[in-house]
Structures are given as C-alpha cells and as structure tokens.
Amino acid sequence: MASLEATHRGGGGGVAAFILLLTTLSAAGIAAGNFNNEIGFNWGQDHGKILENGQLLTLSLDRASGSGFRSTNQYMYGKIDMKIKLVPGNSAGTVTTYYLSSLGSTHDEIDFEFLGNLSGDPYVLHTNVFTQGKGGREQQFYLWFDPTKDFHTYSILWNPQSIIFSVDGTPIRQFKNMEASGIPFPKDQPMWMYSSLWDAEDWATRGGLVKTDWSQAPFIASYRNYSAQACVYGSASSTSSCTQNPSANPWLSQSLDISGQQRIQWVQKNYMIYNYCTDAKRFPQGFPPECSLN
Ligand SMILES: *[C@@H]1O[C@H](CO)[C@@H](O)[C@H](O)[C@H]1NC(C)=O
Ligand SMILES: *[C@@H]1O[C@H](CO)[C@@H](O)[C@H](O)[C@H]1NC(C)=O
C-alpha cells in the first residue's frame, strides 16, 4: 500500500526539492496561512487553485488528473495546522492526503490520509508514521463529525519527545520518541508539508470493491488557515538555534497533559477502527517492538 501511495501522490518535484534544500532560510517563525507565500503546487498544477487573495486553496480531481502542493519551507520540528473540508457526496475512491515527509529511501513521514466513501458512509482517517524509510504503523479512525460539511483543523505536532496527531485540538494518536529502546525517531531529516487529492479506487474503498463514480467529478477538497509554528530548516546554526530554544518555541516541549491523555483514550476507545498493534494475524511472530512501549 505504501509504495502505491508514494507513486500516486508524490508527483515528482525531486529536483526542486534538492534546490530548496540548499537554500538558507530564516530559522523560527509562524507561517500565517497565505497560500500564495507558503506553498507551491508540485503535481497537477492546472487542477489546483488559490483563491481569495491566498486565503483559500482548492484541489480538484477528475479522470485526467488530481493535484497536490507542498510547503515552500522545510521544517525541522513544528506544529503544523491546516483546516480542510473534504470532498462531499459520493467520494468513494478518492483520497485526500496531508502529511509531512522528507525525501529518499530512508525518509521519515507522518501521514493523515482521508479515504472517501459512498454518500452517507463515513470517511476513514488513515494515519501512519515512517521512520528511516520503515512504515507499516497504520492506525485508522472514524471521525465524530461529517468532515465534508465544514472546515476542521488537522494538526501534526512533531517535537523531540513525540509526534501527536490531533483533530480540532483533540489528540487522536501519539508516537513517542523510543530511541532509547532502539526504535528510530524522526530527528535528522527536515520535512516538507504536503497535501494532495488523487484517485485510489484500486485500494482505498474496501480493497477496490467500490469504484470511483466519475459522473460526480470534479471532486473538490478545500483548504484554509495553514499555520506552521516551526523551525524552518536553513543553515546548521539557524536551525539549531531554533530547535534548541524551547522557551521561544513552546511547542518544542509540548506533550500530552492528563486531559490530553484522557481525550486520546476516548478517541481510541470510540473511534479507532484499525490498529496495527492489535492485528495479530499480520504479526504472527509478535508485534513490532514499539507496540508494547507506546
Ligand atoms: C482562518 O482564515 C480566515 C480567512 O480565510 C480568517 O478570517 C480566520 O480568522 C482564520 N481563522 C483562524 C482560526 O485563524
Ligand atoms: C465506508 O463505509 C463502510 C460502511 O459503513 C465502512 O465499512 C468502510 O470502512 C468505510 N470506508 C471505506 C474507505 O470504505
């Protein structure tokens, strides 16, 4: 599944990526959501639009193409928020992605993927964490609202202690830094923020059972309020002066408090529909080591 995802949504841009990597950028900062300044389309450019003076972005998908964009900056740790309104109606077969990723075969990646469904049937929120090129850490959830009616905020907190996925401020998943137990954690490779809308009818809807209904095209996902409280990756000294300054960047030391722990338990008890750490069939030789630690 992971490799299929990568080929469909990556959409090239590798060369531009390396050029950006060489650019020195200012270190700390809050990006306050003007898409004209913060992102560039890296795939299906003619199917992406920036409207309302940079306040609104839409991606559309039809038989010819989907579309995707990427942050201008690379980040080394950050709290990244985006408001998204997902494809309404019969969205079966469509996948909207929103993730952080570095490049290459040993890349790190933190994924939100929204798997569309038939009208009236719930979206599936699919999450994954790749460290040094290894993923396979899927957890899936239903949402407690209709994500196609309004914009909702999807957040990734990535700091040296943990990765926390949140929906409207409610944490749904945590991946702790377990390097002390030999499990790699993303901390050496800066990541871009990416998002895309693409057709995944071959796997997204119950293994390809339900096909995309192209008579409903174009499918449209909308975005607002991109915010990156983050260390922008630049020269070694500017990057480390940001990542080593938690008093100026409180999100760097943020963790789940008691109420956050209670809310994550509430979500996992009521809305989690798949957890690789309980899929005994998949791991007959025993669960991955982080399952007993996280
Ligand atoms: C989100 O962006 C809109 C403009 O698109 C702005 O009016 C609004 O205040 C922003 N909301 C938040 C919570 O930042
Ligand atoms: C779609 O809805 C069905 C029926 O409620 C559900 O079993 C399935 O998990 C949903 N999601 C996808 C991606 O098929």
TrEMBL record:
GO function terms (MF aspect): hydrolase activity, hydrolyzing O-glycosyl compounds; xyloglucan:xyloglucosyl transferase activity
Glycosylation sites: 117
Active site: 109, 113
Any GO BP: cell wall biogenesis
Subcellular location: Secreted, Cell wall; Secreted, Extracellular space, Apoplast
Modification after translation: Contains at least one intrachain disulfide bond essential for its enzymatic activity.
InterPro entries in UniProt: Beta-glucanase-like, Beta-glucanase/XTH, Beta_glucanase, ConA-like_dom_sf, GH16_AS, XET_C, XTH
Gene Ontology cellular-component terms listed: apoplast
Domain (GH16) ranges: 29-223
Domain of life of the organism encoding this protein: Eukaryota
Entry keywords, A to Z: Apoplast, Cell wall, Cell wall biogenesis/degradation, Disulfide bond, Glycoprotein, Glycosidase, Hydrolase, Secreted, Signal, Transferase
UniProt name for this protein: Xyloglucan endotransglucosylase/hydrolase
Taxonomic classification: Eukaryota, Viridiplantae, Streptophyta, Embryophyta, Tracheophyta
